[in-house]
Amino acid sequence: MTDWESPTKQDFHRLIKLDGFLEDKFLPLIQQDVLRKAFISLTELLQYENTHNSKGLPLHAFPVLNRPLVQVLIRWIRCIQLKKPNDLKALLNQSREDALRFIMYWQLCVVDPRKASLIAFQQLEEGITNFPGLEIYKALLASKAAIPIIAPEKILKIKEDVVYTSGSNKLRGWKRFFIKQDANDEEKQVIQLYQRWWGNGNRHIHPLLLWLQREAVAEFEGSPVAGREEDTPYDYDHICPSNHWGDWTGAGGNTDSLLQFVEKNDDGKGHVYVGNSIGNLRVWDSSKNRSDGKVALCEKLKLDDQSEGRNELLKQSAIDPLQIEGWRACSSGERSWNKVRALAFQKVVEQRAFSLYERYYNELRFSEWHENERGALQTFNYLQLFK
User: Is 269:174 a contact under the CB 8 Å cutoff?
Assistant: First the structure.
């Protein structure tokens, strides 16, 4: 078959000629409407709800789930429909946490979705009911269709310099993720994982924020399936506006340009890697974003406001109140930069990027997949790392 995800007319004709495929496999799906019911069950299982499914996906996150992943989830539901249709809802609920953990793992760590889908299907034998998240995870690693998830503490122990900068007075670019020839496998895995988390520095689209900010995203109006243009109800908003740190040539002989504080031998784009990191992005209501997109972040985040309104705004933006001083330090000056402000910008972006990863790992309880670490990992004060 040329494309097993989207068979051509010729491929489909080959399928329906297989003994029993049309009568036993395909027609019952259409006639009994079981696929529609499977999709409805999947939506009900995964959808965020503050009281009974606080780790779920807001509806706006559903369109970013790729087709190979959805096929795995529907296959699992079909296994239950065939084996224990009367217990479908109860059995799905038993696996809700592991299914959500697997979905969010896939979003970050699967490097070959088609291959990963095929491998996962091999773990979903007919008659299975509980979602085999750990088994699929191990199979994906063995097949190299995905990379391992790594505990925050272990990342720091193995390769702390990909997380934060020390001893440098310049903004770092691609060399943060440079793999040395003598790097061991664990170091390579950490670099590859954290590069994917950080965002590679060349795009400002971070779909994982839809889950990290799920409580706020669930309140967004507009259609979840709107296009990525004017109809989209949300934007990926740079917390420190890109207008302030983009390729601004500065004024007064370029002395106040951010480009003066970038490592020249590190591709000269350290400001882009910092500015487009997940640490400097939030998902935000598109109408609000377009009205305050260029406003200095101190004003945008109401950092000088001591009211509960500020704390709620920070919570909606997935910003830890402990980071307030860091954001304030890189706020003033708009497009005028000095070394102190530039390094403060890098530091607070590194802080938030790591704290978001720590939330991602701990809230989804990935330690359940690491038997030797189960129950041993604890949240720590990450700010101590960035003094």
Answer: yes
Rg of the Cα trace of the chain? 23
φ, ψ (nearest 5 deg) of residue 236:
-95, 105
State pLDDT tens for residues 51-92: 999 999 999 999 999 999 999 999 999 899 888 989 999 999
For 137, the token pair is 């995870």
pLDDT at 377: 43
Pull the structure tokens for residue 281: 């992005």
Is a pLDDT exceeding 80 seen at residue 312?
yes
| CA distances for 53 relative to 18, 57, 97, 214, 257, angstroms | 42, 9, 9, 11, 47
Q: Tokens 């031998």, residue?
A: 265
Q: Is the pLDDT of residue 254 over 80?
A: no
pLDDT tens for residues 335-362? 889 999 999 999 999 999 999 999 999 9
The average pLDDT across 20-33 equals 55
Joined together, the tokens standing for residue 23 give 């009568």
The structure tokens 């084996």 sit at 83
Q: Answer yes or no: are the C-beta atoms of 284 and 237 closer than 8 Å.
A: yes
**Alpha carbon separation from 374 to 147, 187, 194, 212, 358 (Å, rounded):** 20, 22, 22, 23, 15
Contact 260, 290 (CB under 8 A): no
- Of 327, 210, 348, the closest CA to residue 279 belongs to 348
Domain extents in the chain: 10-143, 152-386
First-last CA distance in the chain = 56
The yes-or-no verdict on residue 378 having pLDDT over 90 is: no
State yes or no: pLDDT of 158 exceeds 80. yes
Cα angle for residues 163, 195, 216 (degrees, 5° grid): 85
Q: Is 27 in contact with 34 (CB distance < 8 Å)?
A: no
